[in-house]
Amino acid sequence: MNMDDGGAPSKLEDSVIDDSVKNRRTTCPHTHKTIHASVKLQRPSGNQVAVRKYREKKKAQNAYLEQEVKKLRLVNRALIRKLQLQAALGAEAVRLRRLLMDLKSRIGNELGVCRVYKQSCNGSFDSCIHSD
Fold first, then answer.
1. Which pLDDT tens digit goes with each residue over 88-128?
2. For tag attachment on the chain, is the N or C end more exposed, with fewer CB atoms within 10 Å?
3. Distance of alpha carbon 40 from its chain centroid, rounded?
4. Separation of alpha carbons 115 and 32, rounded Å
5. Residues 6 or more apart whose Cβ sits within 8 Å of residue 90
6. Model confidence over 46-57: pLDDT tens digits?
7. 109 versus 85: which is more confidently predicted?
8. Distance between CA 21 and CA 36 in Å, rounded?
9. What is the C-alpha to C-alpha distance for residues 83 and 21, in angstroms, rounded to an integer?
10. Is residue 44 scored above 80 in pLDDT?
11. How many CB atoms lie within 10 A of CB 129?
């Protein structure tokens, strides 16, 4: 180091240090093979590129599936509301049929005619039996 400038290394010293780091040989603890430190500066291997593409593809697929889940949840909520409305309308129809039968019976009683309404197989109240 050059001590005349307050201890800061000169450009020449920096380049010598950088060259020595680049050319230094190290031993990999896992494979116990000698490798160059500059190997990390090389472009990614084919497997690394494939792995990156696979991860990007999976990420895009997951994003698409999340959007589909959101859409299907909205459709599901709409169908549940429709089903609830249909059930409420069915209950209202049953209530109105009972009310209609009750009103027909009251009208018949006020007129002095006793009528018993039977429901035929087609769902209409069309047969009438007069009792004496």
1. 999 999 999 999 999 999 998 888 765 555 444 445 545 45
2. C
3. 40
4. 104
5. none
6. 899 999 999 999
7. 85
8. 10
9. 73
10. no
11. 9
* Phi, psi angles (nearest 5°) of residue 126: -120, -10
Is residue 10 within 8 Å of residue 18, measured between CB atoms? no
Residues contacting 36, CB < 8 A, separation 6+: 23, 25, 26
Q: With left for phi above 0 and alpha for psi between -120 and 50, is residue 32 left, alpha or beta?
A: left
Q: Is 27 helix (H, G, I), strand (E, B) or coil?
A: strand
Amino acid at 110: E
C-alpha 83 chain-centroid distance: 22
Please give the backbone phi and psi of residue 71, each rounded to the nearest 5 degrees, phi first. -60, -45
Per-residue confidence (pLDDT) for residue 112, from 0 to 100: 78
* pLDDT value of residue 109: 87
**Secondary structure letter of residue 44 according to DSSP:** P
Which of helix, strand or coil describes residue 121?
coil
Q: What's the CA gap between 98 and 77, in Å, rounded?
A: 32
